[in-house]
Amino acid sequence: MARFGDLINVEVPVLLEFFTEWDETSKIMHPVVKDVAAALGDKAKIIKIDVEKNNELADALRIKGVPTFIIYKSGEMKWRQRGEESANTLINRVKKFF
Fold first, then answer.
1. Cα-flanking dihedrals φ and ψ of residue 68, to 5°?
2. 3-state DSSP of 34-56
3. What is the dihedral of CA 6, 21, 13, 61, to 10 degrees?
4. Could you tell me what percent of the chain has a pLDDT over 90?
5. Domain covering 2-95 assigned CATH 3.40.30.10 in the classification
6. 31-59 as b/e: b if 16+ CB within 10 A
7. Is the confidence at residue 2, as pLDDT, over 90?
8. E strands, the chain, where?
9. Can you give the pLDDT at residue 3?
10. Is residue 87 a contact partner of residue 39, using CB atoms and an 8 Å limit?
């Protein structure tokens, strides 16, 4: 978990997407998350986390469904939501924490 702490304890907002490869909504969100990353550039970090490969982390964060999005800033969770989101909605949510 120390590595996870290093990922989220930064000055820029960090958008995490918890997903699985087999989930249809997760598949739909892949290009959306790429668009978000392209739009935000180095003003934010975008991290995709496969819950099947990171069970311990998903359990620790109580991820019950995918996709789940979480925004951290300076190590503190600022926002969390499960389900499909548009690129513009995600971009605007992250921008609130610049």
1. -120, 130
2. HHHHHHHHHHCEEEEEECCCCHH
3. -60
4. 96
5. yes
6. ebbeebbebbeeebbbbbbebeeeeebbe
7. no
8. 14-19, 45-50, 68-73, 76-82
9. 87
10. yes
The share of the chain scoring above pLDDT 70, in percent, equals: 98
Both tokens of 38, joined, read 């392209």
Q: What tokens does 92 get?
A: 């605007």
Distinct helix (H) and strand (E) counts, the chain? 4, 4
Alpha-carbon span 5 to 82, nearest angstrom: 22
Which residues are within 8 A (CB) of 94 and not within 5 positions of it... i.e. 6 or more apart?
13, 15, 36, 40, 44, 71
